[in-house]
């Protein structure tokens, strides 16, 4: 029989998870160990006292992991695979050519953020963030400001929020029967937010390390690697659209996107070897994210407040610390939301913390100096303000039009 423990009216599950996030925030050099210790303590508590949504004890844990394994496997495969993709992109020579295409002043970083936003509308936001980070590392001579890192993550998440193929949460909505046009309105808020955070973040970056004015001479683009990157992205996009359109049940049984990415990586390996040396460091960041996602999935959030624009706004802030996938699943089950608002909130909200989205974890694997909640909030202040104001611009221009509860 389950006997949940409550501390000052708060379930102990939430207390343990909050302590885990607090530990990550304070001791950002030991994030992996803290996340694993937090997951272990939450799992042990659920086994002994509270039980899982799927039942008590080991059987409940087994059923819970059976329910979550596709999501976790997809995240693992995508984070690991897109790290290799970004290395292919770096070695292609395109990032070195970018200074010739970007303006020489603070408007150059702005244009790069707009490109990341556009890429994320039809690619996975992890890939868009890593490509943006790779270009930034080259055009800013390896010195990327933490405020600008936050902006790259925000641009990738904002760009995916209005497209059913741009983010896992919007894809979930599509699978559940929400029409693609129902989430497109999220671009009103996302575009507003982009305008609000892109300028201060770009000025931060230009003051920190100005954009390179001209590319080095004698550069050559390696088109074979460009073709491999394109093949991976096209295959992932095609697999996502085909499965959602014709075989939606398959997405609940197999980590299709991750398997597709790795299939192309391995098939093209004889042509150009991936940078396998990236795997150990990428694995640490990936395991960290999976530990937090797994812990978040165990939280007793079975009942959300009544669907309203206020709830949707709050879910954006919640998604900065909690995994947005179970939050989206609960909102879909509850119904009564305006899906464009929800897509923007849970898609963009995670940008306010470096571990609040897969794109943030992937990018900070590339730039470890970003793994500090204090520095992320201090220098990425414009992301939170942009989220809040973008939401209310959308509310004023479009209004809250919820779907009937299904």
TrEMBL record:
Xref: InterPro entries: NhaD-like
Transmembrane segments: 5-26, 32-49, 69-89, 109-134, 146-166, 186-203, 223-242, 254-271, 283-301, 307-329, 341-367, 379-400
UniProt GO molecular function: antiporter activity
One BP annotation, GO: sodium ion transport
Highest taxon above the source species: Bacteria
Alphabetized UniProt keyword annotations: Membrane, Transmembrane, Transmembrane helix
Protein name: Citrate transporter
Record organism: Rhodopseudomonas palustris (strain BisB5)
């Amino acid at each position: 029989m389950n006997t949940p423990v409550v501390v000052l009216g708060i379930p102990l599950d939430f207390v343990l998870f909050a302590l885990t996030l607090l530990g990550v925030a304070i001791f950002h050099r030991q994030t992996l160990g803290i996340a694993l210790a937090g997951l272990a303590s939450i799992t042990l508590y659920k086994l002994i006292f509270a039980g899982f949504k799927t039942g008590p004890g080991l059987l409940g844990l087994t059923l819970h992991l059976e329910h979550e394994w596709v999501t976790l496997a997809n995240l693992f495969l995508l984070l690991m695979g897109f790290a290799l993709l970004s290395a292919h992109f770096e070695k292609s020579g395109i990032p070195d050519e970018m200074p010739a295409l970007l303006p020489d002043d603070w408007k150059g970083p702005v244009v790069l953020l707009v490109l990341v936003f556009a890429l994320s509308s039809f690619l996975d936001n992890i890939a868009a963030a890593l490509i943006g980070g790779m270009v930034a590392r080259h055009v800013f001579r390896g010195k990327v400001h933490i405020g600008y890192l936050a902006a790259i993550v925000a641009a990738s998440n904002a760009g995916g929020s209005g497209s059913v193929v741009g983010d896992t949460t919007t894809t979930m909505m599509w699978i559940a029967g929400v029409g693609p046009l129902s989430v497109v309105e999220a671009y009103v808020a996302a575009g507003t937010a982009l305008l609000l955070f892109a300028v201060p973040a770009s000025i931060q970056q230009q003051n920190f390390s100005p954009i390179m004015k001209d590319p080095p001479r004698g550069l050559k683009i390696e088109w074979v690697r460009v073709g491999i990157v394109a093949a991976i992205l096209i295959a992932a996009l095609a697999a996502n659209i085909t499965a959602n359109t014709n075989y939606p049940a398959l997405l609940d049984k197999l980590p299709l996107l991750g398997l597709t990415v790795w299939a192309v990586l391995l098939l093209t390996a004889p042509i150009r070897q991936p940078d396998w040396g990236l795997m150990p460091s990428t694995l640490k960041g990936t395991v960290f994210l999976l530990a937090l996602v797994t812990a978040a999935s165990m939280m007793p959030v079975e009942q959300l407040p009544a669907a309203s624009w206020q709830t949707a706004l709050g879910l954006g802030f919640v998604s900065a610390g909690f995994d947005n996938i179970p939050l989206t699943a609960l909102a879909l089950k509850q119904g009564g939301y305006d899906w464009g608002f929800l897509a923007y909130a849970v898609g963009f909200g995670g940008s306010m913390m470096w571990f609040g989205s897969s794109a943030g974890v992937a990018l900070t694997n590339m730039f470890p100096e970003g793994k500090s909640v204090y520095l992320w909030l201090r220098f990425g202040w414009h992301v939170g303000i942009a989220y809040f104001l973008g939401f209310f611009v959308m509310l004023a221009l479009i209004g809250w039009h919820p779907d009937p509860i299904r």
